[in-house]
Fold this protein.
Amino acid sequence: MKYLSIVKAEEFIANALKANKVPAADALVIAQLMVKSDLVGADGHGLFRLPAYIKRIQAGGVNLNPNIHIEREQGATALINGDNALGHLVMNRAVELAIEKVKKHSVCWVGSHYGNHSGAASVYVRKLAEQGYIGIYMAVGNANHMAPWGGIDLLLSTNPIAIAVPSGDAPIVLLDIATTVAAYGKVKLAAQKGELMPDTWMIDRSGKPITDPQKSSEGSLLPIGGYKGYGLAVMIGLLAGALNNAAVGKSTVDFNASHDLITNTGQTIIAVDPSAFGDRDQFIARVVELVNDLKGSSRLPGVNQIRVPGDGAAKVMSERLQHGIPISTELQEALNKCAQESGIAILDL
């Protein structure tokens, strides 16, 4: 496996975006946020997505000079109109606004519409937790890959949810999950690498498992926890899609297939100040106490350690900050093809 340093990864992404007429300041913000997905091991949402983003830019599917603005605002709530900007810019603005509002109101709810794919959900709740706030994120995915429980029509996306809780000097307690067994980015990664999928990820229209990722268009991703995951996906779709006047259900646009269409992606970020409920330090102490109790609890035979949400990401981040981002041969080829089409230097690893 080859590795790409964080600095070089950000430079490569920014150069590719600038070569495709993304303003330099925006390109840098997007590059930094994309690499943050790779840093925590969300490899289906970072560098891997660059070729698809470039395709949308070249097809005219995104607005490169957007007016990202607050469309509606009432007290601790706001709705941001992303003006079809690249998704990272929309969510970056949403987090900035959430921080402004949580400082004033102790809790806030910021929705957005007319955005686009913005990488791993954890990136945005982590930004809140790093400043001592609890962060919650929900989104409607950028393509429908899941049928309703017991059905075969693809009416729901992977609809992710992420929750981050600050824990002082210890790693942030952070859950970032799709409501499907696997995020569709993992399916795309498997297809790129020529690997098979586990038979628990997808089923075809007759209910039989699909293991060939090249045939993913013929089936449906399975929800986590059976009907409970389906129900969670529905509710996230309502809160991040319908509430924000964004695409959900039949109106969802498959950005993998239609690079020129406006996706109207809906996202929601919630921020909570723990000090509104008591002493902040005492809250952090309670978080750390629970984490330590969980990790120190008795284990089943063959289990080496008990982890809590965020442990894996913290470990991967530590490794990648030191060694860089692992780049497979297939990913390097895809990125270099993108570089050649954009007229920038290829990655020579």
Notes: Residues 1-58+323-349 form a domain with the Hypothetical Oxidoreductase Yiak; Chain: A, domain 1 fold (CATH 1.10.1530.10). The first strand starts at residue 2 and ends at 4.
